[in-house]
Write a structure and sequence with these properties.
single chain, about 290 residues, 5-stranded antiparallel beta sheet, elongated
C-alpha cells in the first residue's frame, strides 16, 4: 500500500506526486523532498491518498522530511540571493544591449544552480551573458525562454474579474483557446475585453463553452427562417442562458421569443418573401444613419 501526496514548489506551480512514506501530512505543510536536482523545498497541495498498487507508469520520489528551522533560514537566503542575481542580470542585459525581458530568477534549494526566466520576440544570443553570470555568482546558470502565458503564471496578478489569475491559482496546464469560443457565447469580440493580462485570449472562455454548445443543440441555426406567432422571421441571435432566440420579422423589426414558442423551422436558403431583403437592407441603412 502506497500513500501519494501532491507537492507544489511554487504557489502557482504544477502539482507533483510524491511518495509520502510514513509521514503524516496535511495541506499546507512545508516539506523537503527528493528531486532530480537534489533536495527541494515544497508545500503540500493535496493530502496523502492511499493507493493499493505501486504506479507503474512512473517512479515516485519520496518526501525526505518535514521542513525545520534551518530549512526556513535557507529558504530566506535563497530568496535574497535570487533578488541580487536578478538585479545583476538586468544590469548585464542592459550593458550587452540584449532584447530580452528578464522577469524571474529561481535557485535550487542548495543554491548550486540558478535559472533565469525571460521572454523575447525572437532568439537571443546570451552566451556572453551566461559567462558574466557564472563569473559573478560562481554557480551553474540556465537561461530559459518562455512564452507570455507562462510569464503571467509565474508573476501572478489579478484578472478583469477581480480574482487572482486562473493560471496562478489552480490551472495545471494551458488549454487551447479560440475566438470561436467567444463567438458561441455571444461575447464582444473586442480584443481588450476578451484578452487576459498576458494579452492572449482569456483561459476562462473554455469553462462554459461546452455547456453553450450543448444548450444550442436544440436551437435553429442563425440565418434560418422560422415561423412564430407573429409571423415568419430569420434567426439573428441565440440567448441560451435565458432560453430565448432573437428573430428579425418580415416587417424588419427584431423580437426575442422563448425557444418553445417557435412553431416550425424552414430551409436556411428559403427567402421569407420578395420584399424581405429590400426591407432588411432599408432597416440597416436607417440604423446606420
Amino acid at each position: 500500500m502506497y500513500k501519494i501526496v501532491g507537492i507544489k514548489f511554487k504557489p502557482g506551480g504544477k502539482v507533483y506526486d510524491f511518495d509520502s512514506g510514513a509521514f503524516v501530512l496535511k495541506k499546507g505543510d512545508e516539506v523537503i523532498v527528493e528531486t532530480r536536482h537534489g533536495l527541494g523545498y515544497g508545500y503540500v497541495a493535496s493530502p496523502p491518498a492511499t493507493c493499493e498498487d505501486k504506479p507503474l507508469d512512473r517512479l515516485l520520489k519520496k518526501v525526505f522530511r518535514l521542513a525545520n528551522e534551518k530549512d526556513f533560514i535557507q529558504r530566506d537566503k535563497n530568496i535574497e540571493a535570487e533578488k541580487k542575481a536578478h538585479i545583476f542580470c538586468q544590469e548585464c542585459i542592459k550593458q550587452l544591449g540584449l532584447k530580452m525581458n528578464l522577469f524571474a530568477v529561481e535557485s535550487t534549494f542548495d543554491s548550486s544552480k540558478f535559472t533565469f526566466f525571460f521572454t523575447s520576440d525572437g532568439r537571443v544570443d546570451f552566451r556572453q551573458l551566461v559567462k558574466m553570470l557564472v563569473r559573478e555568482l560562481s554557480v551553474r546558470v540556465e537561461m530559459r525562454q518562455v512564452g507570455i502565458r507562462s510569464q503571467s503564471r509565474m508573476c501572478g496578478g489579478l484578472g478583469r474579474c477581480g480574482r487572482v489569475l486562473c493560471c496562478t491559482s489552480f490551472l495545471d496546464k494551458f488549454g487551447p483557446v479560440s475566438i470561436r469560443m467567444a463567438k458561441e457565447q455571444g461575447l464582444s469580440l473586442n480584443p481588450t475585453k476578451i484578452s487576459g493580462q498576458c494579452g492572449r485570449l482569456m483561459c476562462c472562455l473554455t469553462y462554459e463553452y461546452e455547456t453553450y454548445m450543448k444548450l444550442k443543440e436544440k436551437y435553429p441555426r442563425i440565418g434560418s427562417i422560422v415561423k412564430t406567432g407573429n409571423g415568419e422571421g430569420r434567426v439573428i441571435r441565440h440567448n441560451p442562458i435565458n432560453n430565448r432566440v432573437a428573430i428579425r420579422l418580415e416587417d424588419g423589426f427584431d423580437t426575442e421569443i422563448n425557444i418553445e414558442d417557435i412553431i416550425s423551422s424552414k430551409n436556411k436558403s428559403q427567402p421569407l418573401n420578395k420584399n424581405y431583403k429590400k426591407r432588411n437592407k432599408a432597416s440597416k441603412h436607417r440604423r446606420r444613419d
